[in-house]
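We emphasize that the prediction below concerns an isolated chain of 218 residues; any contacts that depend on oligomerization or on bound cofactors are therefore not represented. The input was used exactly as deposited, without trimming of termini.
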Amino acid sequence: MKLLELVKSAHNEQAIENLSEQFDVSPANMTTITEALVPLLSEGFSRNANSDDGMVELLHALGTGRYQRYYQDSRIFSNAHVRYDGVAILKHAVQPQDRRTELVSELETRTDLDGETIEEILPFISALTMGALDQKMRPALDDLVKKLGTAIQSPFADRNPFAALAEYISAATPDSLEDSPVENETIEESTKSTPRAQTSLFAKKLGAIMSWTTAKSA
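Result of the prediction step, given as a token string:
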């Protein structure tokens, strides 16, 4: 399922309705905002995953488990932490500030909403999108952790692939990554023809999975 479809499927497929009710806007306008923002976030996630530091940072964020809860719990709109996290995601993924300003202006034209209302909505869609990314990435990374087997010496390995892989990459040396038991063939189904998947370094292999998933799923 594409990332945009996953966002709309949050809260037992009631995400658009819940957002619309929370902000007192029409579902049509909320859909327009969501469909404009999610591809931009996806591009940002993919860009960040193309660097080792950005990839580990993203894994650490997903490893907190917060975004999985945001994706599942429709009560998130009363939680100030959700907005705080959403603002951080938005600023990190949609850069520079001018691009965010342009987005708000574009959405003012395409909807009957004012800029202030749109700016209030964007962080919550951003938080839900991170939750959708969790849903999208978790099966592939669970499989990757299993393939690594005993190479992963993490208490999180059996329940949190994001935290386990972030820990593994952060602690690994270039030599140990070169000797990773994960071969190109083991991630073939996740990466398809992604050029980055041809590298022998495990960190770059994982980056290829992250980049392919986000880039192809908006």
